[in-house]
Amino acid sequence: MQGMELVRHRRSVRTFDGRELTKEDAEKIMGFALSMENPYGIQIEWKLLSLREDGLTVPVIVEADTYIAGKVKRQEHAEEAFGYAFEKLFLYAESMGLGTTMIAGTMDRTAFEKAMQLESDEVMPCVSPLGYPAQKMSLRETMMRKGVKADSRLDRKELFFDGSFDRPLPESSPCSELLEMVRWAPSAVNKQPWRVVVIGTTAHFYEAKTKGYVDATGWDLQKVDMGIALYHYAYGLDEKVRLKIEDPGIRVPEGCQYIASIERL
Ligand SMILES: Cc1cc2nc3c(=O)[nH]c(=O)nc-3n(C[C@H](O)[C@H](O)[C@H](O)COP(=O)(O)O)c2cc1C
To answer: Is 106 in the pocket of ligand 1 (CB under 6 A)?
Structure first.
């Protein structure tokens, strides 16, 4: 599986079948994680953790022992770089038949940060279980998915624009299919903050902010979502793209912030 099929097949998996992650799969995932780059050139440190051995708790996840977590030095664009890289890892895991869920809130953060030996100038944005999906979702997982409408996404007319924010991108646009990959990206509480304005061969990404996602230190969880969206777009083009931070200076709706642009090569 690859491309759109892989993107549509991925979902957050919260119920696992209880099998230990094989040594082979663990090595494959870590090998991939260590080889990963992100267009921001920001270094991220990845580590596999064990729920039992590291004393972790994640109430929303059933029957998974292995977790992967990443940490990064606090700096500008750390959120986007992290989201980009973690989603790259998620789609790779999906291609191996492994289940994942990006978790930023519903875990014992203190225990995870201790296991990651987090320093005061670092942040551990999200963690994920790694394992083999169970045949049947737990009742809690089913309820959670309903609660955030996890199986649906905003209409493309609300997300994608042609040259300016007052012109929705026509369905006949050559980048419609590519943007469909962005539309199906995962986001915190399924808020889908990404908005994209296409001008020529460049897609300009904006964050439509939801209240309550920026903490006291200025860390913006929805920028992790933005990094995920940027990766989905780049993935659709086999990463034959250039990411640049050059605000095109068009008029932007209130509450929207320019993030980055991706040019096709
Ligand atoms: C940055 C980020 C943080 C998330 N945090 C949590 C979390 O704390 N707990 C949880 O159960 N799911 C979490 N999720 C998963 C989202 O709820 C999920 O991606 C969204 O509802 C869409 O569903 P899907 O991934 O199955 O397509 C998070 C996702 C992202 C991208």
So the answer is: yes
Does 178 share its domain with 116?
A: no
Q: How far apart are CA 21 and CA 64, in angstroms?
A: 9
Q: How far apart are CA 82 and CA 43, in angstroms?
A: 9
* Cα separations in angstroms, 50 against 14, 36, 133, 177: 16, 22, 17, 39
With a 6 Å cutoff on the Cβ, whether 64 touches ligand 1 is no
- The CATH number linked to 253 is 3.40.109.30
Q: Which of 139, 168, 196 is the last residue of a domain?
A: 139
Residue of the nearest CA to atom 13 in ligand 1?
A: 103
- Residues 13 and 128 grouped into a single domain: yes
Q: Mind listing the pLDDT tens digit for each residue in 175-204? A: 999 999 999 999 999 999 999 999 999 999
pLDDT of residue 27: 98
The per-residue pLDDT for range 23-62, each reduced to its tens digit, is 999 999 999 999 999 999 999 999 999 999 999 999 999 9
Distance 163 CA to ligand 1 centre (A): 31
CA of 192 to the centre of ligand 1 (A): 11
Residue 48: Cβ-neighbour burial (10 angstroms; 0-12, 13-18, 19+): middle
Give me the count of residues in the chain: 265
Ligand 1 close to Cβ of residue 262 (< 6 A): no
Ligand 1: centre distance to CA 187 (Å): 6
Structure token digits, residue 156: 């493309």
Task: Confirm or reject: Cβ of 7 under 6 Å from ligand 1.
Answer: no
Does any ligand 1 atom lie closer than 6 A to the CB of residue 11? yes
Taking the whole predicted model, whether its pTM rises above 0.70 is answered as yes
CATH number, domain with residue 80: 3.40.109.10
